[in-house]
Specification:
The chain has seven helices and 16 strands. It is globular. A hairpin with a 2-residue loop joins strand 2 and strand 3. Bound molecules: zinc ion. Zinc ion (ZN) binds next to loops. Zinc ion binds next to loops.
Length: 327
């Protein structure tokens, strides 16, 4: 098996599409899609994805390194693993996406977009994940790795898809070990890849925002060492690293700011960092028939972006909640 990232960036198919070593079996499932299975038994089935946004390079490089170490035998494999490089054409162009943001399209929402490369790919990824977990009795996980565009006062955080039942303690242990600064609990279904695997494939899943990325080859991967060590431990079935003294903070989405008019006005400067606290009474946005002022002592802004298309989310208001909210 040749290098996954190099093959994907080159847009070529490997000479052999499957193979076996003394300890594992691998199978190329299509562009940017690789399944690896240990020959001995396993208790967990894990999807690791990156590059759903093509310019979020650092986590793509991390996954590529992990795959190389597993295939060469440098790192043991204890789980059944599916590695997904999400949007290869956008990766080649070093762009977030070519036509539309794929991470709004999952759960069948691609049908609401004009057909394009991203709608086809979202549909394919749903199928691949669904096939991967079909008939699978092992514990199911999916971690979708991203990096943020804007600065963030809490640089590393996880977005938990809405689910009515409590979140997997095993997943939360991993998120603690990855030294995330915060978790954000969604209160409603969404179109993200991790929401799809949670809702439709019953996996414990999370979208991870891991800091800022640079072009391929220029990333300082040390910045990502905590998540890297946590994922290495997960796939190798080794004990997770212990978390440092600062506990993870937990937020919930209080309100999604949905842009319904071209005259939507967001009263925040363009460079407002994620997790900026806004005091009670602050006017956050206005559009015809609707305005919003901060209701609680403090609310925190996440992903403010007034330039999104109509009908899409221009930001989220968060409130901080106790960790027990997760259970
Ligand atoms: Zn992203």
């Amino acid at each position: 098996m040749q290098n996954l990232l190099a093959l994907t960036l080159a847009g070529t198919t490997p000479v052999n599409i499957d193979g076996e070593t003394a300890t594992l079996r691998w199978r190329w499932l299509g562009e940017g899609l690789l399944e690896i299975c240990p020959l001995q038994g396993y208790r967990q089935a894990v999807v690791l994805s990156a590059g759903i946004h093509g310019n979020e390079t650092a986590p793509i490089e991390l996954l590529d390194q992990l795959v190389t170490e597993i295939l060469t035998g440098a790192r043991p494999l204890a789980v059944r693993l599916l590695v997904v490089l999400g949007n290869p054409p956008a990766m080649r162009a070093n762009q977030r996406y070519l036509t539309s943001d794929m991470n709004r399209m999952f759960g069948g929402r691609y049908q609401q977009f004009a057909p394009c490369g991203e709608t086809a790919r979202a549909q394919q990824l749903e199928q691949v994940v669904s096939d991967f977990f079909a008939q699978e009795h092992a514990t199911r996980f999916h971690f979708d790795l991203h990096t943020a565009i804007r600065g963030s006062l809490l640089p590393r955080f996880g977005l938990l898809p809405y689910q009515p039942e409590s979140y997997s303690p095993e997943m939360l242990t991993l998120l603690d070990a990855a030294e995330l600064d915060a978790l954000v609990i969604h209160q409603a279904p969404g179109g993200t890849f991790s929401y799809y695997s949670c809702e439709y494939a019953r996996a414990a899943s999370c979208t991870l925002e891991l800091g800022k990325a640079r072009p391929f080859g220029s990333n300082d991967l040390h910045q990502f060492s905590a998540i890297n060590h946590a994922l290495q431990a997960l796939v190798s079935g080794q004990p997770l690293p212990l978390r440092g003294p600062i506990p993870i903070r937990v937020f919930r989405v209080e309100r999604s700011l949905v842009k319904r008019s071209e005259s939507f006005k967001l009263y925040l400067s363009d460079d407002t960092a994620n997790f900026t606290a806004l005091p009670q009474g602050t006017l956050v946005y206005e559009q015809p028939g609707e305005s919003y002022r901060v209701q609680h002592d403090n609310e925190w802004i996440l992903f403010p972006n007034p330039k999104v298309a109509l009908g899409l989310r221009a930001g989220m208001m968060l409130t901080e909640v106790p960790r027990s909210t997760l259970f």
